[in-house]
Structures are given as structure tokens and as C-alpha cells.
Amino acid sequence: MIDIRLLRQDPTAFRGALTRRLDPALGGLLDRVVEADRRRREVLVRVEALKAERNQASEEVARLKREKQDATGLLARLKASGDEVRALDTQLRAIDEELEGLALRIPNLPLSQVPDGDGTGNREIRRWGGVPQLAFAPVPHWDLGARLGLFDLPRGTKLAGSGFPVFTGPGARLVRSLAAFMLDLHTREHGYTEIAPPYVVNRATMTGTGQLPKFQEELYHVSEDDLFLIPTAEVPVTNLRRDEILDAAELPVTMTAYTPCFRREAGAHGKDTRGLIRVHQFDKVELVRIVKPEESAQELETITSHAEAVLQKLDLPYRVMQLAAGDTGFAAACTYDLEVWAAGVGGWLEVSSASTFTDFQARRANIRYRPVPGAKPEFVHTLNASALAFPRTIIAILENNQEADGSVRLPEALVPYMGVERLHPRA
RNA sequence: GGCGUGGUGGCCGAGUGGUUUAAGGCAGCGGUCUUGAAAACCGCCAAGGGGGAAACUCCUUCGUGAGUUCGAAUCUCACCCACGCCGCCA
Asked: What is each CA distance from A73 to A81, A282, A288, in whole angstroms?
């Protein structure tokens, strides 16, 4: 949620920052917010003055009755003003609702250091690892997966539809191994607390992190109970502290969770969706950090490095991209994407997204902290990073480590979890 | 799913139409005392939103919403949530 007072104080700077998101609808939306905010205060001033009068007169009525005096004249006047208060209150509620509905659709302001432009303006920050040079034509993962018996896409389609992969045998074990490996790394070496959250959440929770109201068509919805399947563990884990006031001593709160993620991916078909590249259900280990505002810039570097550590330990080459303002997600103020090299499809695949949301999610979810005991509560900052999304991690492992005989060498870090060093084609 | 009980500030908890501008306690903050601390005692101590240059001031909030009333934590209705028992069930 945007800070409406900030908009009121410095509308030019506010609009300037939002313009960088390259969404032509935002200007009009802001105009409507400013107008509704003005009307809200206008009505508020009138109704509050009336209520102050009424409260004073009510005390007078109480006093008269206590002293057994007549109050009928005062009561008649109060009745009229009561009707007016009711009418104005109704009007005010409608304006409040309108204002909130509008404000919830305005994205976060990009940080000043975020580059201008759309996706083509994304900036490569650094690169790690060497792109493997294979002595033969690399096979894409969908063929490798079938040959090695790791997953069965046609049967997944039979069960639920295209985009619902089934992992089988060593492939299923690979999924389980990745979960254990990533969770062990983040809990033991990076200090995160492991969380196993619900996979369905209510509207308030989805609104808290910014998926609702704007992106409902991207979510699977259980209409009978008005619940939504989570598109990422970020949603339940960040919302754990919704409507809470934290002690400063608790911060940073750092949590990690392994969950399935459900995404309708409405409209995304055809290109770049083959095999495991873009699916409706996938597993992911997520990192969430709830931090003091003044620490969020440094915290973004920290959480990004934790996601990078996974790729480094898996020996997968990647690059770090800073997203341009026009390509940064709705709730984020600054995002680094980690893109892993995939030899078979011959390209970089987004395998992690690390973002600071500044106070945007904290406002929506009402997560605050007291800087010092007894002080007024302030909004925290929230961050998250995938570390990592499984399907594209699996793609990179298979495609980069394939050998001429059709086998795939497993990264050393996974060998203890897999119990074997190599995956072989089925006989 | 059925019946019952309940939902009050950061936490516990009193409160059945008007001195409740929500008692009291815990936690927290400040002070007295002390070499220091503890104890004891004294004081402060909810959140959100307006108006105002400021001092300050006003409004809202007792699970949510809608009613009754001049006036609602308190009365009515609906809903949500928690707990208990019954039913069903991994």
C-alpha cells in the first residue's frame, strides 16, 4: 500500500517515481486517489464537528437526567443532528471504500537506484561460474527427463492438465533431495527458521502481500471456502506477522519455507513454456526477512547472497540482473533476478527473484515494530527471495551436467541426499 | 455438519443503556531510594485518522457488519473466529 500522506506532501516526486513503471493507467488512478482523499477529508471534518457537538450535548442530557431535570428540548435537537451524522457516516464509508480500492491497485515506488526502462533496461550486475562447453549437441531437459525416467509430463496432463508435472523414481527423489539440501543450507548456515505453512490462504492474507485485489486471475481459487492456493510461500510466511507489533530486538525475523506454488499463468502459452520451464504447480524454497527500515538496503544484498549460495553449491553458472523499474513486480521497490544457464535450451532462466518491498507489504499487512520500548510503532520492511525454484534448478542440473553417454552427473552437494553420483538412462 | 460457551488495549481481565474521557493487574518507560541491582513506593504508559504555524484539540476503535436509541462495550439480527461435547473422518 502506498503512503497517501507522502502523495499529499510531494505529489510531483510521487508521480515521477510511479511514471518509471511505464503503466499509462497509473496517472489517472492517482488523480482519482487524490480526489477521493480530498473528498474524504472534507466529509470527515464536517462529520467530526457534528459528532463533537453531539457528544457534548449527550453529556448534558446525562447530567440533566441525573439531576431529574427536563431534557426534551435538547433531545429533539439531537435527533435531527443524529440523522445528519448517519447520512455523512454512510457517505464517508463509501468514500473510504473507494479510496482503499484505488490505493490497493497502485504499485510500490521503485528505489532511485533502479534503472529506467522496461525489461530491456535490466542491468547485469555480476556473473558466477563458467558456461559449460559440451563436445556434443546438448539435449533439452524434456528429452533427458524421459530417457532417465525422472518425470512424466503426459501423465501429469492426464491427471490435471498441461503444466502439472509428475516426477517419478529418481526424479521424485531429486525433488525431495533439493528440498532437504536447500532447507539444510538456509537453516544451518544462514540462520533461517524453517516454517511449514498452509498452502491455502484467505483474502486478507493475499491482500497483505499484494496478490489481491489486482492479480486474482493469476490465482487458483477454492470458491466454496473463498480460499486461494498460494503462488509462493512468501504469502503465508510474510503474513505470519500480519497485524502484529514486533519488538526491535526480534529483528531481523528470518524464515524459510518449502512449499508447492500454484500459478494459473493465464495467457502464457507456447513460447518458453516447454517441458518444466513454466508450469502451474512447482516446488520452491523461499526466504523471507522482516527487518528495520534503515537496514533493508543491506538486507537485500544479504538475502540475494543466500540465494546465490545455493547456485554456487550446486555449481550452476548464473548471472545477477537488476530489474529496470518497468520490469519490477507490483509490490517490489528493487529486485535482483538470478538467471541460471541452461545448456539444453541454450539460455538463461530466471531461477530466483530477490526483492525488497520496503514498507509496501508492511502497510498492507499492518506489520509494525517499536524502534525502542515505549516508542510509537513504525512499519517494518519486508524482503524475500526464492532459493530456489525447483523446476528450473532441475533443468540446469540436467542440461549442464549431461554427458555423451546420456548420463547426468549430479552436483557434489546433492550426492549425500541422492545416494548416487550419477543418473543413468533407463535400459 | 448439530448443539453449547465465549471474543474487551502489547498480554491477562472487570464491566448489562448516560461520572467508562474502558476499573484492576502484568509487561514497558521515567523517577525516589541504593555503591550497583533487586524490592518497595511515586508517576507515565493503546492504536488509527483529522484540524492547527504551534500550544493544543477533535473523531473513531471493546471479533466484523447491519439495526434500535438523543446516546451502545452493554439491547436486536446476520456473519466470522476460538473452545467444549456429539456426528463424520486421514
From this structure: 13, 71, 62
